[in-house]
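Consider the following input, taken from an annotated entry for Polysaccharide deacetylase family protein (Undibacterium rugosum).
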Amino acid sequence: MSAITHSLVRKASRFAARHTLQRWLPLQRQRAVVSFSFDDVALSACTTGAALLQEYQARATFFVCGGLENQMEQGQLCHHGAQLQQLHRDGHEVACHTYSHLNCELQPLSVLRPDWAKNRHYLDQLGIPLSGFAFPFGAYDLSSKYAAAQRFSYSRITGGGMQQGRADLHALRAQALYAGKTTEQEIRNLITEAVEQGAWLIFYSHEVSDQPGPWGTTPAQLRFALQTARDAGCDLLNIRDAIQHYRAVSA
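Applying the prediction step yields:
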């Protein structure tokens, strides 16, 4: 297959993944929900981030790569198992981000499936039940979306936006919370829109540090987002609990 043909096939697969294999969760118009999530799970997300969430009685979703335990990722030291167990005990959701931080769009299912199984085993050993999944780099195609839909209760992507009226549980949209890119006005506007539309807004970031890398947030920025959402009357729920909430009000 030529490089041009391969590129066209990948583009077609991405387009098909966006518009097929959808599993809709109805979102009855009511109070907005804001969820916070952390990918890779840097040490600072487990400590500084979790402490800030506790101040606001909020619970987040932590998307874990078991292979990153006690390792450096993007210049940040990552979690260890005892911290994940504490997050779980405190009511946070600990979910899957692949074991090896794989780009799911580029990997065959023969690689993805055993890698997912390895991450499940990692969390099983910690006594943490596995529920949802976030695609590393927000990268997915038709086959990986289908395979993830068979294994996980939901999948989260990136790319911005929020869930309005209904949510595709196989591709939940999320908005970056990055200190170097996301302004306070943008945060305020997103939360205002979520309130006006009765929508579900998911933020994602990585580390929580006074000097974060390009994919992290600062304690001040995270606090601002939490305070703004609370002041606006939003429900602060992790992704798992938000899904349960919407199912309950739709029953």
